[in-house]
Records
---
Amino acid sequence: MARRVVITGIGVVAPGGTGTPAFWSLLSEGRTATRGITLFDPSAFRSRVAAEADFDPLRHGLTPREIRRMDRAVQFGVVSAREALADSGLDAAAFDAHRAGVSFGTAVGATTGLDSEYRVVSDDGRLAAVDHTHASPHLHDYYVPSSFATEVAWAVGAEGPATVVSTGCTSGIDSVAHAADLIREGSADIMVTGAADAPITPITLACFDAIRATTSRNDEPETASRPFDASRKGFVLGEGAAAFVLEELESARKRGAHVYAELAGYASRSNAFHMTGLRPDGRELAEAITVALDEARLNPEDLDYVNAHGSGTKLNDLHETAAYKLALGPHAYRTPISSVKSMIGHSLGSVGSMEIAASLLAMEHHVVPPTANLHTPDPECDLDYVPLVAREHRTDAVLTVGSGFGGFQSAMVLARPDRRTA
């Protein structure tokens, strides 16, 4: 019989505040953390708003040497992983380090470090032939995504499997699913997992400007992210990280751990259709949802809440609405659905893990976070997208989904262990 995997620790670095309590306060109050970009001068770009994390690495326990060595996204990952380990109640000195591993996701890796180092070695873009002698001695770590898993493993004392998962905007779901698989198959007893990204950089803005995927609502940054709203104009870039401690159910119960949820089901599909486009019928996402529910041994009627991808582009919103109707049938109209990207923006690969954190906290508090800025629902998005205000709602089983460039479609079911049989 496969081992059952549960989540016993959460850590978050997010726009609006670092730490799980600040993250939940923002979401449950329906506040937004989107604003005009302050990390650099964005005046040359079409989209000039983002959801930035007010992050002080020294205040959150990183040493000057760690700050010098780590890219901003890696710093997010390490701080969130340390919080998750502390929240789990596990003592790093007590568990078998060789049976503890790391699976961490990222979409764009050390973009911040690479961008800043290029500016240095190219003399702010003036040199065609860059001068490598001015580069940071840690530039190699920025180029090699494995540095994410390495730094997190060092931070939590894990000496078992260490992996980086990079599947675009579904990385934060897929990395957690991979961690669960390692526990189920017996390769590890404890996994620290999640995802981190810090993509608010000139090069990222330029890329999304080119395809007009990001919003042009620069004069309304606080309300610029509008998933499922008829007035949406694209997504708002974000940044951040979320991390989790995963372990086997009986082991967690034996040590008296607080169990947030069981990772009950997961599936991923690819549309094999277009690098950035989506089929309007949502068939691939619907297939991932159906398979995840089957693995969890739950019916659509058992779902209490859906944490949507909800990026705020018309293409995604219509695709996602169609997928819910196809996979959940009539229950799609009865299930509360919301997008937290309306409040924290879209941090690419890491947002899947941040949405898992939001789902777990919704289960913990029996409160569904709202879709902020949803004043004028798109008539074609006619499901219950929980506009503006959080809703008290018994929440024992949650579906969270992700959709990414390249055609990736992932779905994960989180449930209280007593909601399903062994």
Note: Residues 72-88 form the longest helix (17 residues).
---
Amino acid sequence: MAFELPPLPYAYDALEPTINEETMKFHHDKHHKAYTDKLNEGVEKDPSLAGKTIEEILGVISTQPPLVRNNGGGYWNHDFFWKIMTPGGGTPSGKLAEAITAYGGLDKLKEDFNTKGAGQFGSGWAWVIADADGKLSITSTPNQDNPLMDDVAVKGTPILGNDVWEHAYYLTYRNDRPGYLKAWWDVVNWDEAGRIYDSVVG
């Protein structure tokens, strides 16, 4: 198998009450596993993808069929999603905190991100991304697309990302996507976000 389902970096119930145990079990063990399995199916059908990293595949996603696009995106997005959350959350610091201040402050970042996520029609993701100079911006993508894909409308390095597919929140929040987006900030892994940001700006 080219790709393996990465384990959660914490227990299923570690993010409660923001995200409950049942949601995490279904989301990781069923949804993420399905993306992983189907990505491998797509890779097996195309010898040119053998040995490539998921980031390399996303970088040429415009040349790939929906099987690889949808499941490659789903595989990467969910691996990122688990890592960008942590029990107890935290606060931004270092260079990332400075970039957030330059953006307009944390409250503005949260407000704009939540608005973008709530406004994403249907299923998709909301993102905080950084360009090569470290400037932050907020975008969203449909389905399992992400800002690393070569043909996405707005490209950049994901610093934060939140899954706004209904399976990510419906068991707890029902149809209250804005409520889920607001609560999600309580479990953001700012240390990991800062590490990613530092890798962009050096």
Note: The helical segments are 21-45, 54-58, 66-83, 94-103, 106-119, 170-173, 177-184, 190-201.
